[in-house]
Amino acid sequence: MILASLVEQLNLTVRCCGERLDQNVTGGYVGDLLSDVIAHSDRGNVWITRQSHHNIVAVAELKEHAGIIVVLGRNPEDETVRRAEEVGIPILTTELSGFEVAGKLYEFLHR
Amino acid sequence: MGYTAEYENSFPIEGGNFDEAGVVSLRVKSILKELGFPGDIQRRAAIATYESELNIISYARSGHVRLRVGPHQIRIDAEDQGPGIEDIELAMKDGYSTASDRIREMGFGAGMGLSNIKRCSDTFEITSERDKGAHLKMLIDTQ
Amino acid sequence: MKLSRLVEILEGTVITGENHLDTEVNTAFSADLMSDVLAFAKPKSLILTGLTNPQVVRTASILDSAAIVIVRGKIPPAETVKLAKELNIPIVSTKYILFETSGRLYVNGMVGCVQKIGDS
After folding, report:
1. What is the ipTM of this complex?
2. Does domain B7-141 sit in CATH 3.40.50.2300?
3. Which residues of C touch A28 (CB under 8 A)?
4. If one looks up domain A3-109 in CATH, what number appears?
């Protein structure tokens, strides 16, 4: 599934790196504990989280995530968006919960 | 305050003792349940107490939570001995946190605590004195 | 769905709460952050999490949650299990990650608890 398609289907707000939505999504990873995300997530995953501080960009970059979806209306810090722009990681936001985003993405990937 | 407390008790909290986090809130919840308050009131009081408890454990040397139940109101005071809250307005912002990595790895420190308390209380006041401590006052109307 | 059905879907292990397997669970909240659970999880909802400390059990008790599902194959320590037994909170463990766990439940009709049951 292409990230742009997910953005459209879930009506996600694109905070940065709109030109990088052409990536293929290999799966999803839901988590808020950075060490866990680093240990277990995969390249090409969309990372679904409530964390919004700038550390998340380094993690996503390290793990080569397709993008980060910050859920439940959390607004990423300006510094987070700035760093994401620098490294080309799309930051997407939504009012939906992590469960709902994960559920829908899972459904799309398993059709 | 102008009302006669039907119940009053104070619960000490040890700074840094994460193992005990939530013990006081559960007691508060069970006391309110015994006093006959509905589930919603029990939960709100317990959530507000829990977040206060976590703040004391995370940031202070020591503190206590005091529960007072009167005919029209539940009052919860959380007072601690510690650094105090540097910037209350900033601390109230969702997502703002001064938590250490260790605290975050336990699942705490998301920066929602004060905002959760505010959401659960009908009245919420914070006072703080630098290098002395903080005092959170939470009121839940029960009429 | 009944908790017993959830255990099947997640190929889970019942850590505690064998006598609660008939409990109906219809909403779920996924998170690793305690404050988020406190802020958003509604009563009678499932908590899906990677956290295994006793505080999760206390959080679940405060919120009157239906059960806790611990993901990523983690087994909670003895003190967590003991507390869950005392407070009567079922714990199910699954090998699946939080994403897969959420997904499997979602496609089987579980809804997020910030959403009302019955909404499309």
Report:
1. 0.95
2. no
3. 99, 103
4. 3.40.1390.20
